[in-house]
């Protein structure tokens, strides 16, 4: 039997119905505080009006490096939902019993990319023979903090596996989060950078000259969970919304890898 093909009108109606379900689960006067990895900036900008239209409630979004956000939650920051750019920082909060049991789920995936400011730099093959120092021409390689922020950790792991890190380390400019690394390359302050592919897609002043094979670093996944609060119901409704059809469409349009797509 062939799979049923829905018309655009029916698909739109189903999306509206899905949003209505979340509207029933969340109260109109709820403001949900979401702590989200900086690489989700564009996604959260797109999802905020969708959530408000569906529920009448508001989203307040705090964007930063996952490490910064996790530490703030450890120190008592009043977050309702945490979306990390890697599993490690979510593991830390789970071990500290700071997330609501059973609410953790992986939302989407991503790819690590090498970007350049100069459009004349050609595509590069990412392997042990990659001569990044020569490509830098005396400049710096922009990366998020390599021992704390997920994008930086992934990048350092990949470069180490390629045997390039020891020589490159003195030429790296580390930043608080991946979007700041992206900004350095976009402005020309750094000729090259390592960011997520979704960051490269979002910034027209850079171009992607290579992607790192996933065998060089752990799989890039974005786990989300509700943070322990007296009333977790609004957070649970938002987590379900993040896996709805309308939200999945936003993630896909922003270049994220959506399970099942």
TrEMBL record:
<dbReference type="GO" id="GO:0030973">
    <property type="term" value="F:molybdate ion binding"/>
</dbReference>
<feature type="binding site">
    <location>
        <position position="151"/>
    </location>
    <ligand>
        <name>molybdate</name>
    </ligand>
</feature>
<comment type="similarity">
    <text>Belongs to the bacterial solute-binding protein ModA family.</text>
</comment>
<feature type="binding site">
    <location>
        <position position="39"/>
    </location>
    <ligand>
        <name>molybdate</name>
    </ligand>
</feature>
<protein>
    <submittedName>
        <fullName>Molybdate ABC transporter substrate-binding protein</fullName>
    </submittedName>
</protein>
<dbReference type="Pfam" id="PF13531">
    <property type="entry name" value="SBP_bac_11"/>
</dbReference>
<dbReference type="GO" id="GO:0030288">
    <property type="term" value="C:outer membrane-bounded periplasmic space"/>
</dbReference>
<dbReference type="GO" id="GO:1901359">
    <property type="term" value="F:tungstate binding"/>
</dbReference>
<keyword id="KW-0732">Signal</keyword>
<feature type="binding site">
    <location>
        <position position="66"/>
    </location>
    <ligand>
        <name>molybdate</name>
    </ligand>
</feature>
<dbReference type="InterPro" id="IPR005950">
    <property type="entry name" value="ModA"/>
</dbReference>
<dbReference type="InterPro" id="IPR010916">
    <property type="entry name" value="TonB_box_CS"/>
</dbReference>
<feature type="binding site">
    <location>
        <position position="178"/>
    </location>
    <ligand>
        <name>molybdate</name>
    </ligand>
</feature>
<feature type="binding site">
    <location>
        <position position="196"/>
    </location>
    <ligand>
        <name>molybdate</name>
    </ligand>
</feature>
<keyword id="KW-0479">Metal-binding</keyword>
<dbReference type="GO" id="GO:0046872">
    <property type="term" value="F:metal ion binding"/>
</dbReference>
<dbReference type="InterPro" id="IPR050682">
    <property type="entry name" value="ModA/WtpA"/>
</dbReference>
<feature type="signal peptide">
    <location>
        <begin position="1"/>
        <end position="28"/>
    </location>
</feature>
<comment type="subunit">
    <text>The complex is composed of two ATP-binding proteins (ModC), two transmembrane proteins (ModB) and a solute-binding protein (ModA).</text>
</comment>
<keyword id="KW-0500">Molybdenum</keyword>
<dbReference type="GO" id="GO:0015689">
    <property type="term" value="P:molybdate ion transport"/>
</dbReference>
